[in-house]
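Narrative summary of target 7.
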Amino acid sequence: MSIAASSPSPAEGWDAECDVLVVGSGGGGCTGAYTAAAHGLDTMLIEKTPLFGGTTAYSGASLWLAGNQAQQRSGLDDSAQQALGYLRATVGERTRASLQESYVNHSGDLVAFLEESRHLRFRYAAFPDYYDAPGRFDRGRSIVPEEIDAAELGDLLDLLRPSWAADRLGADLPRARLGGGQALIGRFLLALRETSRVRLSHSTALDGLIQENGRVVGVQALRDGRPLRIRARQGVILAAGGFEGSDELRRTYQAPRDARWTMGPTGANTGDALRAGLSAGAGTDLLGECWWCPSVALDESTASFTLGARGGIFVNAQGRRFANESLPYDRMGRALLAQEAAGNPLPCYWIYDGTTEGLPPGIVSANPGDARPYLDSGVWKKADTLVGLAEQIGVPAAELTATVERFNSFAAAGVDEDFHRGEDPYDRFFATGEGANPNLVPLEKGPFHAVPVVLGDLGTKGGLTTDDQARVTTPGGDVIPGLYAAGNTMASVSGLVYPGPGVPIGSAMVFAYLAATDIARQQTN
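Modeled conformation, tokenized:
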């Protein structure tokens, strides 16, 4: 499928030909394709699934891009220097200082470049940075795409991956006004079409890289199962997500994790780009890492990302609290990992009382609306007393009762003496309770509920190593000519932490922009 004029007939031995081939259609892939096309390059973007947008389309599309003009329009006084100080304070030396600088120092340029298109518009949206570190913004520094009427997309709407609940659960949700990742990808599809230099090919999976004399000159792909050789005269940008959807690769690099609880699109992000890069001689890093998150189990094989706990407590297999329940989601995910390592098996349980009509008191991406189907299936539990609830979930009744009593005493006093819940700006950003500490809401009214919380992820974050221009490198640090990586295909600039909202998509976009800019620069030299 193409949304632009067709290219000239390919050279002998090739089924298609372009200057720049982009693999993947999330925020990174779309940025790379748009940047290449804006520089006058004949561009082709291939997407494995029938829909464009990848995991980005499921997201809120926060973009951690420092010192940009969208922030300035809102009156936010941010700078690359401030953001770089924060990034270095949180990430440390786990990734190169020059890579961190490349990300932060080009963020403002990227936003200015994208907003040259009439279709790409952004605004500041408050969402606190995730760590108490120098350079932090308590209200956050992220931007988001402006919403857009779905009607503006016309026929492109049918090619846009819908929200997570609609795509993964089949929920019938209105789609008249698009926000978040839907708006970002929708706007990119319009911008790509307007360039008249981008061909989009869905249902086209990467099957390998083609090299000549050490240079990547194209890819071997499968379109609807049919082999396809695509020549890329100037370069290939791999922005095809991670490997969270592959049981095999998860068990190889992240045992005992598998693909069951990932939030990624079904059938996507199975490590095709990672395998291709390895076959081409690329180095790798951070393969044991993910963008972790707590997820509410909906059935035996599906769980829904959750954040912003506004009530209730999380308890482990001993019936005890183990963390500040209002932690940023990656930090809570790592707290779950620590519980598992300490011998407390997952899931843990989100315990809350009868003041919420049975629904978890927080933001759950599935937006379940009604607790009854999950209670009827037996996945979620309910009891008139804490003792009865403890029996259902298999934790010591005396411990659970004592844990709730202790937490209620903290709520009355307004101070969480164990885990300091409600003391951080991130905690308070989501709070809806009352009193001295609105994050501490007592559990007093039956019936009491228990929802299993598993260790989910928003994608893997380990991948191919690159230099500061997103050029893929070998284990020894040499550049593989013609090959670039961005997003979750690339080993993340953020190392072992998730510094703030929008780092995954924001960094994907910056490094895809740098990749395409480098290709364009080489063509003119």
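The chain has a mean pLDDT of 96.
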